[in-house]
Design goal:
alpha/beta; 3 strands; single chain; about 100 residues; 5 helices
Length: about 100
């Protein structure tokens, strides 16, 4: 895995030898990020929507975010996860395992 700890533009512009790109988006960042940074989400095979346990406490429209992501990449696979509760992590882990086996 290659992590970029910068913005959502630079990592999408370069081939770093990865098997796939995964965009990680927190609900605290706002649902507009897929349309604000379309190249990153267009190039990613997966979007992980994190911190979903915070949804009752932040203004974030999950459906709108997914709609935006699908607008820029109709084939993007989306996982909604919470590291606190563990929700959605089993699906993400299963997807990862399948990538290793494939």
């Amino acid at each position: 895995m290659i992590e970029n700890v910068g913005n959502l533009v630079c990592p999408a512009l370069f081939d770093l030898g990865e098997n796939c790109k995964v965009a990680i988006l927190s609900v605290t960042e706002g649902e507009d990020k897929p349309i604000k940074y379309p190249y990153m989400f267009r190039e990613s095979q997966v979007m992980i929507l994190t911190k979903i346990d915070l949804l009752p406490y932040v203004q974030f429209d999950v459906n709108r975010c997914i709609e935006y992501a699908k607008q820029v990449n109709p084939n993007i696979k989306i996982f909604q996860v919470s590291a606190t509760s563990g929700e959605g992590l089993n699906d993400w882990y299963e997807w990862l395992k399948n990538q290793i086996i494939s």
